[in-house]
Amino acid sequence: MTMDEFITLIELKSPPTPPDQLEAFEAEIGGMLPDDYRQFLVRTNGGFVRGWYRFKGRTPRGEIRSAYLHHICGFHEEWHLSLRFNRVCSLDPESGFPHGLLWIMDDPGGNGICIGLTGEQRGKVYFWIHDELPDPDEWDGAVETACNVILLTESFADFVAGIGPRAGDD
Protein backbone atom coordinates (compact mmCIF):
# COMPACT_ATOMS: atom_id res chain seq x y z
CA MET A 1 0.00 0.00 0.00
CA THR A 2 1.22 3.51 -0.66
CA MET A 3 1.25 6.24 1.97
CA ASP A 4 -1.55 8.03 0.07
CA GLU A 5 -3.71 4.87 0.10
CA PHE A 6 -3.08 4.39 3.81
CA ILE A 7 -4.00 7.97 4.63
CA THR A 8 -7.21 7.55 2.61
CA LEU A 9 -8.20 4.57 4.83
CA ILE A 10 -7.90 6.54 8.06
CA GLU A 11 -11.21 7.83 9.42
CA LEU A 12 -11.75 10.72 11.87
CA LYS A 13 -8.63 12.40 10.58
CA SER A 14 -7.88 15.74 12.09
CA PRO A 15 -6.22 18.39 10.02
CA PRO A 16 -2.50 17.67 9.53
CA THR A 17 -0.37 18.15 12.61
CA PRO A 18 0.64 21.81 13.01
CA PRO A 19 4.46 22.17 12.89
CA ASP A 20 4.62 23.87 16.29
CA GLN A 21 2.73 21.00 17.95
CA LEU A 22 5.01 18.44 16.29
CA GLU A 23 8.12 20.36 17.38
CA ALA A 24 6.81 20.66 20.95
CA PHE A 25 6.24 16.91 21.09
CA GLU A 26 9.73 16.24 19.75
CA ALA A 27 11.11 18.49 22.50
CA GLU A 28 9.15 16.43 25.06
CA ILE A 29 10.60 13.14 23.80
CA GLY A 30 14.09 14.57 23.46
CA GLY A 31 14.64 14.26 19.71
CA MET A 32 13.13 14.28 16.26
CA LEU A 33 10.80 11.54 15.14
CA PRO A 34 12.02 9.24 12.34
CA ASP A 35 11.58 11.15 9.08
CA ASP A 36 9.09 8.82 7.31
CA TYR A 37 6.83 8.73 10.38
CA ARG A 38 7.22 12.48 10.89
CA GLN A 39 6.12 13.09 7.29
CA PHE A 40 3.08 10.89 7.92
CA LEU A 41 2.08 13.09 10.88
CA VAL A 42 2.62 16.21 8.79
CA ARG A 43 0.09 14.85 6.28
CA THR A 44 -2.46 13.39 8.70
CA ASN A 45 -3.06 13.44 12.41
CA GLY A 46 -4.13 9.88 13.09
CA GLY A 47 -7.63 8.48 13.44
CA PHE A 48 -8.71 4.88 13.06
CA VAL A 49 -8.95 2.17 10.42
CA ARG A 50 -12.31 0.50 10.00
CA GLY A 51 -12.40 -3.11 8.90
CA TRP A 52 -9.74 -5.77 8.91
CA TYR A 53 -6.59 -4.17 7.59
CA ARG A 54 -3.26 -5.54 8.61
CA PHE A 55 0.43 -5.32 8.07
CA LYS A 56 1.95 -8.52 6.74
CA GLY A 57 5.58 -8.81 5.79
CA ARG A 58 8.97 -10.35 6.33
CA THR A 59 11.12 -9.23 9.20
CA PRO A 60 14.79 -8.50 8.52
CA ARG A 61 15.48 -12.08 9.71
CA GLY A 62 13.06 -13.51 7.13
CA GLU A 63 10.17 -14.37 9.46
CA ILE A 64 6.65 -13.54 8.30
CA ARG A 65 4.79 -11.35 10.80
CA SER A 66 1.41 -9.68 10.80
CA ALA A 67 -0.35 -7.07 12.90
CA TYR A 68 -3.90 -5.76 12.58
CA LEU A 69 -4.55 -2.01 12.66
CA HIS A 70 -7.14 -0.11 14.66
CA HIS A 71 -6.34 3.25 16.30
CA ILE A 72 -3.73 5.45 14.63
CA CYS A 73 -2.28 7.91 17.14
CA GLY A 74 -1.79 11.59 16.53
CA PHE A 75 -2.38 14.75 18.54
CA HIS A 76 -5.96 14.02 19.59
CA GLU A 77 -7.66 14.61 22.92
CA GLU A 78 -9.09 11.06 23.01
CA TRP A 79 -6.65 8.84 24.93
CA HIS A 80 -6.82 5.98 22.42
CA LEU A 81 -5.76 8.35 19.59
CA SER A 82 -3.17 10.33 21.54
CA LEU A 83 0.60 10.04 21.12
CA ARG A 84 1.08 12.04 24.32
CA PHE A 85 -1.22 9.86 26.42
CA ASN A 86 0.42 6.66 25.21
CA ARG A 87 3.88 8.15 25.75
CA VAL A 88 3.09 9.02 29.37
CA CYS A 89 1.61 5.56 30.03
CA SER A 90 4.59 3.82 28.49
CA LEU A 91 6.98 5.62 30.85
CA ASP A 92 5.49 3.76 33.83
CA PRO A 93 8.10 1.13 34.79
CA GLU A 94 5.29 -1.31 35.66
CA SER A 95 3.94 -1.19 32.09
CA GLY A 96 6.53 -3.56 30.64
CA PHE A 97 7.01 -1.11 27.79
CA PRO A 98 10.63 -0.77 26.59
CA HIS A 99 12.59 2.47 26.70
CA GLY A 100 13.23 4.03 23.32
CA LEU A 101 9.93 3.05 21.69
CA LEU A 102 6.91 5.23 20.95
CA TRP A 103 3.41 3.73 20.77
CA ILE A 104 1.99 4.97 17.44
CA MET A 105 -0.97 2.61 16.81
CA ASP A 106 -2.79 -0.30 18.33
CA ASP A 107 -4.52 -3.43 17.18
CA PRO A 108 -8.13 -4.32 18.08
CA GLY A 109 -6.85 -6.27 21.11
CA GLY A 110 -4.97 -3.33 22.64
CA ASN A 111 -1.45 -4.39 21.66
CA GLY A 112 0.87 -1.62 20.53
CA ILE A 113 2.47 -0.92 17.20
CA CYS A 114 5.53 1.14 18.06
CA ILE A 115 8.41 2.95 16.41
CA GLY A 116 11.97 3.08 17.68
CA LEU A 117 13.28 6.50 18.65
CA THR A 118 16.91 5.89 19.54
CA GLY A 119 19.96 3.79 18.84
CA GLU A 120 19.73 0.63 16.75
CA GLN A 121 15.93 0.68 17.10
CA ARG A 122 15.51 4.14 15.53
CA GLY A 123 12.90 4.08 12.77
CA LYS A 124 12.11 0.38 13.10
CA VAL A 125 8.52 -0.71 13.70
CA TYR A 126 7.70 -3.16 16.51
CA PHE A 127 4.69 -5.03 17.86
CA TRP A 128 4.31 -4.86 21.66
CA ILE A 129 2.18 -7.56 23.34
CA HIS A 130 0.49 -5.96 26.35
CA ASP A 131 -0.45 -9.13 28.23
CA GLU A 132 2.98 -10.81 28.11
CA LEU A 133 5.06 -8.72 30.47
CA PRO A 134 8.79 -9.35 30.69
CA ASP A 135 10.24 -11.07 33.73
CA PRO A 136 11.35 -8.21 36.01
CA ASP A 137 14.41 -10.23 37.08
CA GLU A 138 15.59 -10.57 33.46
CA TRP A 139 14.38 -7.34 31.87
CA ASP A 140 16.41 -4.14 32.04
CA GLY A 141 13.91 -1.92 30.18
CA ALA A 142 15.60 -2.41 26.80
CA VAL A 143 13.95 -3.66 23.61
CA GLU A 144 16.55 -6.42 23.30
CA THR A 145 15.61 -8.00 26.63
CA ALA A 146 11.83 -7.58 26.33
CA CYS A 147 10.16 -10.91 25.56
CA ASN A 148 6.97 -9.12 24.52
CA VAL A 149 8.35 -7.09 21.60
CA ILE A 150 8.54 -8.34 18.01
CA LEU A 151 10.36 -6.52 15.22
CA LEU A 152 8.06 -6.04 12.22
CA THR A 153 10.01 -3.85 9.77
CA GLU A 154 13.06 -1.67 9.35
CA SER A 155 11.02 1.50 8.70
CA PHE A 156 7.58 3.10 8.88
CA ALA A 157 7.53 3.29 5.06
CA ASP A 158 8.10 -0.50 4.89
CA PHE A 159 5.34 -1.00 7.44
CA VAL A 160 2.87 1.01 5.35
CA ALA A 161 3.94 -0.86 2.20
CA GLY A 162 2.94 -4.12 3.93
CA ILE A 163 -0.59 -2.98 4.86
CA GLY A 164 -3.50 -4.57 3.04
CA PRO A 165 -6.97 -5.97 3.64
CA ARG A 166 -7.21 -9.24 5.50
CA ALA A 167 -7.24 -12.14 3.04
CA GLY A 168 -8.40 -15.28 4.81
CA ASP A 169 -6.44 -16.76 7.67
CA ASP A 170 -3.09 -17.02 5.91
Protein structure class: alpha+beta
Residue fraction in strands: 15-25%
Q: Strand order of the main beta sheet, please? A: 6-7-8-9
Q: Main beta sheet: strand number and arrangement?
A: 4 strands, antiparallel
Helix content: 10-25%
Q: Tell me the overall shape.
A: globular
**Distance between the ends:** 18 Å
Task: Give the overall average pLDDT.
Answer: 89
Could you give the order of the helices and strands?
A: HEHHEEEEHEEEEHE
Q: Tell me the radius of gyration.
A: 15 Å
- pLDDT < 50 stretches: none
What's the number of helices?
5
Number of beta-strand segments: 10
Set out the fold topology.
Layout: H1 3-9, E1 10-11, H2 19-29, H3 35-43, E2 47-49, E3 53-58, E4 64-68, E5 71-72, H4 83-90, E6 101-106, E7 112-116, E8 125-128, E9 149-153, H5 156-161, E10 163-165
Antiparallel strand pairs: 1-2, 2-5, 3-4, 3-10, 6-7, 7-8, 8-9
How would you characterize the overall build of this protein?
Helix content is 24%, strand content 24%. The protein is built from five helices and ten strands, in the order H-E-H-H-E-E-E-E-H-E-E-E-E-H-E. The strands form three sheets. A four-stranded antiparallel β-sheet has the order 6-7-8-9. A three-stranded antiparallel β-sheet has the order 1-2-5. The longest helix is centred in the N-terminal third of the chain and has 11 residues, at 19-29.
Compact description:
This protein has 170 residues and is α+β, with helices and mostly antiparallel strands. Helix content is 24%, strand content 24%.
